Amino acid sequence: MDSRPIRFHHRGAVAQVQGLPPATTVLDWLREHARCTGTKEGCAEGDCGACTVAVGELDPAGRGVQWQAVNACTAFLPTLDGRALLTVEDLGGTHPAQAALVECHGSQCGFCTPGFVMSMAACHERHSAAGTRPSRQDLADELAGNLCRCTGYRPILDAGARMFDLPAQRLPGAPVAEALRALQADPPLAGDGFAAPRTIDALAEALERTPHARLLAGSTDIGLWVNKQFRALGPLVYVGRVDAMKRIERRADGGLSIGAAASLEDAWSALAERHPELRAMWLRFASPPVRRAGTMGGNVANGSPIGDSAPVLMALDAALVLRRGRAVRTLALEDFYLDYMKNRLEPGEFVQAIELPPVPGRVLRAYKLAKRYDSDISAVACGVAVDVNDDGTVRAARFAFGGMAAVVRRAAAAEAAVVGRPWDEPALRAAQAALARDFAPLTDLRASAAYRAQAAASLLERFWRETAPAAGAGAALDLRQVEASA
Amino acid sequence: MNKPVDDPRVAVVTEAPAAQAAPEVGVARAHESAHLHVAGTATYVDDIPETVGTLHAALGLSPLAHGRLGAVDTARLKALPGVVDVLTAADLPGRNDCGPIVHDDPILADGTLHYLGQPVFAVIATTRGAARRAAALAREVIAADPLPAVLTAREAHAKSQYVLPPMHLARGDARAAIDAAPRRLAGTLSVGGQEQFYLEGQISYALPLEDGGMRVHCSTQHPTEMQHVVAAALNLAAHHVQVECRRMGGGFGGKESQSALFACVAAVAARRLDRPVKLRLDRDDDFLATGRRHGFEYDWEVGFDDAGRVLGLEMSLVSNAGFSADLSGPVMTRALCHVDNAYWLPHVALHGYSARTNTQSNTAFRGFGGPQGAIALEYVLDTIARALGRDALAVRRANFYGVGERNVTPYRQTVDDNIAGPLVDELVASARYAERRAAVEAFNAASPVLKKGLALTPVKFGISFNAVHYNQAGALVHVYSDGSVLVNHGGTEMGQGLHTKVAQVVAHELGVPLSRVRATATDTGKVANTSATAASTGSDLNGKAAQDAARKIKARLAAFAAERHGGRAEDVRFEGDRVHANGSAVGFCELVNAAYLARVQLWSDGFYATPGLHWDRETLTGRPFFYFAYGAGVSEVVVDTLTGESRCLRADLLHDAGRSLNPAIDLGQVEGGFIQGMGWLTTEELVWHPESGALLTHAPSTYKIPTANDLPPVFNVKLYENDNVHETIHRSKAVGEPPLLLAFSVWLAIRDAVAAARPAGSAAPQLDAPATPEAVLRALASPT
Question: Residues B661, B664, B668, CA angle at the centre, nearest 5°?
Answer without folding.
Answer: 110
